[in-house]
Specification:
Elements (H helix, E strand, L loop, with lengths): L1 E6 L6 E6 L2 E5 L5 H10 L9 E3 L5 H4 L2 H8 L2 E5 H6 L9 E5 L5 E3 L2 E7 L8 E6 L4 E5 L7 H7 L4 E5 L4 H5 L5 H8 L7 H9 L8 E5 L8 H12 L7 E2 L6 E5 L24 H11 L6 H6 L4 H11 L6 H6 L6 H13 L2
Parallel strand pairs: 3-4, 4-5, 5-6, 10-11, 11-12, 12-13
Antiparallel strand pairs: 1-2, 1-14, 2-3, 7-8, 8-9, 9-10
Helix pairs in contact: 8-9
The structure holds zinc ion (ZN) (2 copies).
């Protein structure tokens, strides 16, 4: 599973999530031409999309959605409240799917787990995307966190998290008083400190990607947002990704962290020779004093394989740079490694 952003902020939002051949766009806050241009930046054409999910009716999330869906015959998934709340004419849309923001559904190879958020819209819903094993949580446009939001986002492999404003900058800034109260209110937007507090309440052991999103250009800076999240993670601020208003961010892949443990398991016959023999891997891990080096023996003996794998995942040091996974196999490209098990299994 991989994901990328076309842009994020009060002047427009759109995110693309891809699992195998299924690609969904979350929100479409840009005009049609601009959306096409930004998709092209990611190597996509509108025909690559399976549809559009809409979080709520604010124009920075929905402005281009209907026109884009009409032009390319794309289905839309939307809550009843958002559909009613948006003034646009939905009568001749190719396909409208009304979702219940508490019920999971799937589109192609992607599972969607929507959840409601407190925001000043009719029925806003955000999403956790899953391929059944890995999960990407996306949360923007929420005035505050709830225990339900925390339950949805805990244990995710990747998070796109709103860091809208710095409370001091907002309060000392030039916004009119009413707007300040709206943005900082329970149904407004998440400030850096609240985002950090939400993050701190989550299980972060699986997190491979953390991206600060919907950053205000008037009341926040990238540095403040990243610093707030980095403090919770105990990492350098530079590791935190940023969803930029103009640039969004490029593709980020969610890796199966224990894939380097898999190739020699349940691999019959000559296919074994395609991958580095188990003993060499063990040796390599010993040399590197890798935290998972002791687990290989247990896996080989077939003892508590599930548990060992789960623990191996937890013991991989955080944060895990994408290249480290492939390094265990030296010659192999990380991308190739990930695909090896499936293609190998399909041979004879
Ligand atoms: Zn917004
Ligand atoms: Zn909004």
């Amino acid at each position: 599973m991989r994901f990328a952003s076309l842009g994020s902020g009060s002047r427009g939002n759109a995110l693309v999530v891809e699992q195998e051949l299924t690609r969904l766009m979350l929100d479409c806050g840009y005009p049609v031409r601009e959306t096409e241009r930004r998709l092209a930046r990611l190597g996509l054409v509108p025909g690559d999309l399976a549809g559009i999910l809409i979080t709520h009716e604010h124009s920075d999330h929905i402005a281009g959605a209907y026109k884009f869906a009409r032009k390319y015959g794309l289905p839309i998934w939307i809550t009843h409240g958002t559909l009613k709340g948006f003034a646009g004419d939905a009568s001749d849309l190719p396909q409208i799917n009304i979702i219940d923001s508490h019920n999971a559904f799937s589109v192609g190879e992607l599972q969607l787990l929507p959840f409601p958020v407190p925001h000043d819209a009719r029925e806003p819903a955000h999403y956790v995307f899953s391929d059944g094993a890995k999960r990407l949580g996306v949360l923007t446009d929420t005035g505050s966190s709830t225990s339900h939001i925390e339950a949805m986002l805990t244990g995710c492999d990747a998070l796109v998290l709103e860091c809208n404003h710095d409370l001091d900058m907002l309060m000392n800034g030039e916004y009119p008083q009413a707007l300040k109260a709206r943005v900082a209110g329970r149904y407004g937007h998440l400030d850096n400190r609240s985002a950090a507090a939400l993050l701190a309440s989550l299980d972060r052991t699986r997190l491979q990607h953390l991206i600060a999103a919907h950053i205000s250009q008037h009341n926040n800076t990238v540095e403040l947002a990243c610093e707030a999240l980095a403090q919770v993670m105990g990492c350098a601020p530079g590791w935190i990704g940023v969803a930029d208003q103009d640039e969004g961010f490029g593709w980020r892949e969610i890796l199966w962290l224990t894939s380097w443990l898999r190739p020699w398991r349940r691999r019959p016959g000559p296919e074994r020779q395609r991958v580095r023999p188990e003993r060499q891997v063990q040796q390599r891990l010993q040399e590197q004093r890798h935290p998972s080096r002791h687990l290989l023996l247990r896996l080989r003996r077939g003892q508590q394989g599930q548990q060992a794998r789960a623990r191996a995942r937890l013991q991989v040091p955080w944060p895990v740079p994408a290249v480290r996974e492939g390094e265990h196999f030296g010659r192999n490209q990380p991308g190739r490694m990930r695909r090896t098990p499936r293609s190998v299994l399909s041979v004879s």
